[in-house]
Design brief:
- The protein has 1 helix and 4 strands.
- By secondary structure, it is mostly beta strands.
- The strands form 2 sheets. It has a two-stranded antiparallel sheet. A two-stranded antiparallel sheet has the order 3-4.
- The protein is elongated.
- The mean pLDDT is about 80.
Length: about 80
């Protein structure tokens, strides 16, 4: 049974183990909802956001994605 050392309290089990040290099966979890959007934009404006040595590709496309997860067993069903 792997343990992680917490500085305030000594060893404790890792977060992906149940109270008795069992591993979660995660057969039907977690559930996930994802959304993404991509759009063309102004090349010069987009380049202002990039760090040095980075460059915009052939087309100035911005892509944004987000995921929301629920029913994460090792977070006691939260997420």
């Amino acid at each position: 049974m792997p343990y992680k050392l917490r500085p305030d309290n000594g060893p404790s089990m890792g977060p992906r183990q149940g109270p008795c040290g069992h591993k979660f099966e995660c057969k039907d979890s977690p559930k996930s909802t994802s959304i993404s959007v991509s759009f063309l934009t102004n090349r010069e404006q987009l380049e202002e956001f990039l760090p040095e040595r980075f460059e915009v590709g052939a087309e100035p496309v911005v892509s944004v994605s987000a995921s929301y997860m629920t029913e994460i067993e090792w977070l006691a069903g939260r997420g």
